[in-house]
Design brief:
Blueprint (H helix, E strand, L loop, with lengths): L10 E5 L16 H16 L4 E7 L5 E12 L6 E2 L2 E2 L13 E11 L8 H16 L7 E7 L3 H6 L3 E2 L9 E7 L3
Parallel strand pairs: 6-7
Antiparallel strand pairs: 1-2, 2-3, 3-6, 4-5, 7-9, 8-9
Bound molecules: coenzyme A.
């Protein structure tokens, strides 16, 4: 039976702060890397302005249900892709100093195991897209990107992400993007 989804009124998105640290222990996602990032690296990453982490917190219990971390970067995109009727291999995309497309990157995304399938990650992706639009008022970049584990490709495809270029068969992660202005 499908699980009940979180209502937006039941949860809050909070930017990570040192006061959240006591909540980390109760957060256990299916991925060891994602768990240890939250515990060991997220606050330092933020302090050194390398990335920002946002928590989806259940209001009633103050549990961390899910989190996303975001940073600024760039990525390679197939030269055949077309946006606004212009191919990536053509101007204005293709200028000498712009070999990689500027973007906001989802560095980490994970949901507490017992809360999977209740729409938490979907809410955080939607919020990241809104955030990307807000930042775009000051600094331009056309894409939101994730380097997705192979087994998570169908999840991101469901959320509207496309594969950026044909990866090698051995690749553990695949770069995926959404265009923010289509
Ligand atoms: C991937 C992850 C973040 C999804 O979080 P979530 O809060 O359960 O996601 P949501 O509930 O918002 O969305 C789940 C949807 O994705 C689908 N989904 C989840 N994993 C999927 C997969 N591997 N393949 C296809 N669909 C998948 C579900 O069927 C559901 O579909 P629906 O929206 O149509 O109902 C979570 O499974 C997780 O934390 N995994 C471990 C960490 C990880 O691998 N992170 C990704 C790094 S690339």
């Amino acid at each position: 039976m499908p699980k009940a989804r979180f209502e937006e009124s039941e949860v809050e998105i909070e930017k990570l702060r040192p006061e959240h640290a006591p909540l980390f222990d109760r957060f256990i996602s299916d991925s060891v890397d994602e768990n240890s990032f939250l515990r060991d690296d997220a606050l330092a990453g933020q302090m050194f302005r390398l990335s920002d982490t946002y928590l989806l917190v259940e209001k009633k219990t103050r549990r961390i249900v899910s989190y996303i971390s975001l940073y600024i970067g760039s990525f390679k995109l197939s030269r055949k892709r077309t946006f606004h009727k212009v191919k990536i291999k053509d101007k204005p995309y293709s200028v000498k100093r712009l070999r990689h497309m500027p973007c906001l990157i989802i560095g980490r995304l994970a949901t507490n195991k017992e809360d999977e399938g209740k729409g938490a990650a979907t809410l955080l992706i939607a919020s990241a897209i809104k955030q990307a639009h807000r930042i775009n008022e000051l600094i331009s970049f056309p894409f939101l990107v994730v380097h997705a584990y192979k087994e998570k490709i169908p999840f991101y495809e469901k959320k509207g992400f496309k594969i950026a270029f044909t990866p090698s068969r051995k690749a553990r992660v695949h770069t995926m993007y959404v265009h923010l202005f289509e």
